[in-house]
Amino acid sequence: MILRINYLLIAFCFAFTSFAFGQKKPNILLICVDDLRTELGSYGNPIVKSPNLDKLSDQGRLFNNHFVQVPTCGASRHCLLTGKRPIEKKYLSNSISAQLSTGKVEGEIPESFVHHFKRNGYNTVGIGKISHHPDGYVYGYDEEKSDQLEFPFSWDESLCDVGGWGTAWNTFFGYAGFKNRTTEKKQVKPYESADVEDTGYPDGLNAQLAIKKLNELKDKEEPFLLAVGFFKPHLPFTAPQKYWDLYDRDKIPLSPNPFLVENSEKNSLHGSGEFNGYALGEEKAALGKPLSDDYARKIRHGYYACISYVDAQIGKLLDELDRTGLSENTIVVVWGDHGWHLGDHTVWGKHTVFERSLNSTLIMRIPDQAKKGKPTNAVVETVDIYPTLTELCGIDDVEGLDGQSLVALLNNPKAQKEDVAYSYFKNSITMRNDRYRLTKYYGESGIVYELYDHKNDPNETINVSAKFPDIVDKLKPVLEKGNTGLFDY
């Protein structure tokens, strides 16, 4: 009780000081995008149409080498929100946030950085998918919305415009005309192009809601943390026809490495089960057997169309930030929760510890951005975002965060940083530095190491651990620094 009163007093004093001196701490606009790998114009893709995110990159800092901790939605978002790496097998599950927070009492340690900011005087609003559940409430795909928040002490408001779809999970797997994958019993294709307005799909509705909420927040005395989670380009690849029309399918390139990895652990990849779950797809993906070129281009076309669609929604939100004058004092973060294999290694999906699944979009823009428009090649991790935001906003960190602040890199893209990122999935841990990826698999026959040289093999086509055992031995202690106890057996 005393602790709770102290937090309330801190929040009151902060609000009073801000009011008295007419100043606010920086606002935060956090934009989470599902399954967005580094596939934007600003990342060097000459085909993808992403003008709004490219513009943001020109105004802020693009991170070329950002890696997530876990290549699955809920677990990756848990690492973002808590600033912590996984420490038990359950931390690799999409349900980890609900397991740890839902239905619990408020504790001394904040359940998320959103909770921490709320305790420090911020008005916190979440729209769409920020944690695993797309409206912040815990319930199953085919269930009615519950009243159980995934993070019960983090949000002043947790919202999602479900339109005619009925529930947030139905919107997440939504098709035009208020159809969805669940009620259609998966008797759907993994893509759709419909002649509808942007609001004919859910991300358009949530962009509208975010703009409305932004205008409510701008006149409040306290600063805000507005988090907006867009669904696309997560499967199904559904977007208005006009975004499909931006592309000539014949010019969409195929994967540069549509074949299995040489000398790789046999369980390192998977059979694209999520993708194959869309029953009406024209072809099924199979490990070691690429899709036909025509179908591969069609699916990649859908992914690109979804990027353009969500880029347009983000553009509307950023334009409103400019129109209201809020840009001058708002930190903007755009974060992809993980990458996605588009036929790379014959996989269609995430859920691997290869580059395509772990490398995702990260763009940050801060007020009075120094050296804007210059990307950084420093290796950074999702867990770095929490301490970066607290430093930018003058809020003390909680103890035990695993990340490092990126403020120095925001001020200077060539600033020095410990260049290593750690990721985890199933029975593996991997580390990435500025040149190598070393992965440690715990297989049935014992421990197996794989080494990939990104200077000579950026597409990770050949495991060269046997060829360079000295490099493996040199990197093993670095990898073990990231072993949080998850694989102590």
Please characterize this protein's 3D structure:
The radius of gyration is 22 Å and the shape is globular. Strand 11 (341-342) and strand 12 (348-349) form a beta hairpin. It is α/β, with parallel strands linked by helices and 489 residues long. It has helices at residues 2-21, 51-59, 73-82, 96-101, 113-119, 168-172, 202-217, 241-244, 273-276, 293-323, 355-358, 385-393, 407-411, 469-481; strands at 27-33, 61-67, 123-128, 157-159, 174-175, 179-180, 191-194, 224-230, 237-240, 330-336, 341-342, 348-349, 362-365, 376-381, 421-425, 428-432, 436-443, 446-453. Residues 1-22 have low confidence and may be disordered. The strands form five sheets. It has an eight-stranded mixed beta sheet with strand order 4-3-8-1-10-13-2-14, with helices on both faces. Strands 15-16-17-18 form a four-stranded antiparallel beta sheet, with helices on one face. Helix 7 packs parallel to helix 10 (293-323). The longest helix is centred in the middle third of the chain and has 31 residues, at 293-323. The chain contains 14 helices and 18 strands.
Topology record:
Layout: H1 2-21, E1 27-33, H2 51-59, E2 61-67, H3 73-82, H4 96-101, H5 113-119, E3 123-128, E4 157-159, H6 168-172, E5 174-175, E6 179-180, E7 191-194, H7 202-217, E8 224-230, E9 237-240, H8 241-244, H9 273-276, H10 293-323, E10 330-336, E11 341-342, E12 348-349, H11 355-358, E13 362-365, E14 376-381, H12 385-393, H13 407-411, E15 421-425, E16 428-432, E17 436-443, E18 446-453, H14 469-481
Helix pairs in contact: 7-10
